Amino acid sequence: MLTGLVITSMLVQRCELPPRWFKGDTKHEKQKRFQNSNQYHSPTLRFTQCQPKPNVPHIQQGLDINLNETQQLHGHFIKTSSNCSYQVPLAALESYSSNAAIHSFLITSYIKNNFPADAAKIYAYMHRIDTEVDNFIIPPVLKPCCLIPSILLGQEVHGFVVKNGFHGDVFVCNALIMMYSEVGSLASAQLVFDKIHKKYVVSWSTMIRSYDKSGLLDEALDLVRDMHVMRVKPSEIAMISITHVLAELADLKLGKAMHAYVMRNWKCGKSGVPLSTALIDMYAKCKNLAYARRVFDGMSEASIISWTAMIATYIHCNNLNEGAGLFVKMLGEGMSPNEITMLSFVKECGTAGALELGKLLHAFTLRSGFTMSLVLATAFIDMYGKCGGVRSARSVFDSFKSKDLMMWSAMISAYAQNNCIDEAFDIFVHMTGCGIRPNERTMVSHLMICAKAGSLEMGKWIHSYIDKQGIKGNIILKTSLVDTYAKCGDIDALLAAAMDRDVSM
């Protein structure tokens, strides 16, 4: 309980890590110094005007000595020191417990609260005070490497793993594979995988998912075949990863074979909701509506994710009436769509050019009291732009007083796609006038729209803006400018962009 309170205070304050005091002292020396220092920090001081600044050594001298006195001192620091030194909570934590489990819990807590750098500092601090680090703490320690991300920190932890003989632990190896894949070093991930003597299904699944996330689908499929040859029976999680690989490859033949395998090996031929949803998505990307609907109808209890996948499948395959009908049926069965569901529908409407269905979704959002976030509003603007409904896009845009860069960019793109160049100019100028500066990704996106729509005038205007901002040497922007001018048929402007010269409007 006491440890939990200290950890909570550390998470709130996001404390830095102190060095170790009196590390070489004997227990007797600590006891003597603790008693001498504690008399100056007696709780009776709270009745006086004298409030000494909390001192970390005063707490740390109480390590393994006297819990009652340590609690009194900790309580005194809390009551009398609102601006307590950042080092006090960690020192108090060590007073109650100095083992690795507490540090492991603290690392996990920092990660869950999205403070990966602080979690990494805890790991470094453990080494500094010679706290024993076992194999159980390695997987949590590797997570900050993915979130920061830092391959150097990951390699340092990997070296520690090998040095201490933890490389035979399957959970440690799986964490290393995931870490290397997240920081973009799949070759290192494969080396770790290859050195695992006895590969369990979790290891196979982790490696397949790593290749899948990196877009290396053929390599992922090779691993699936190797897994089959080694007679490793995949778990449901592994099957979801494999299904996603086949969906991205749009391999209907292999997809059907895998579906048959699921029917044979899962109880009553019915897979769980996540796997069934993955199968629906796979058949959708193979443009096989009949099999997707068969999987959906065979589900004993469909979740909102399953409904979303099936409706999105109909829209993706341009079967808009069935999609609208299933959406109404979903509402009739008491399933309320969430923001992710609506984003999926709106995105598919934009891709399919389904303006009427998009308007239906917009009307539902307004009438049902559904919270219209910036993200969802931007999706509607993008959808209307792709479907030719520029006025509706502008209506959504104007309904928000506070706009982020993505919303401004979506409105500019909507005008550019519909060849409303003057309006796009006005929005761009207004955006920069509001102090919102487009980033590289935004400008590349606008140039791609200009190239697709043949909007030479707007392409030149963006080129002029890039020159004024002094970022003409950016190779990505230069390539986008050259591509835009090439597709618009302006050779002079193309050469000017290639040679970093100003272009005449």
TrEMBL record:
Start-end of each PPR repeat: 200-234, 303-337, 404-438
Full protein name: Pentatricopeptide repeat-containing protein, chloroplastic
Signal peptide from the UniProt entry: none
Statement: the UniProt record of this protein carries the keyword Transferase: no
Pfam families listed in its UniProt record: PPR
One Gene Ontology MF term: RNA binding
Keywords assigned by UniProt, alphabetized: Repeat
Domain of life: Eukaryota
BP-aspect Gene Ontology terms: RNA modification
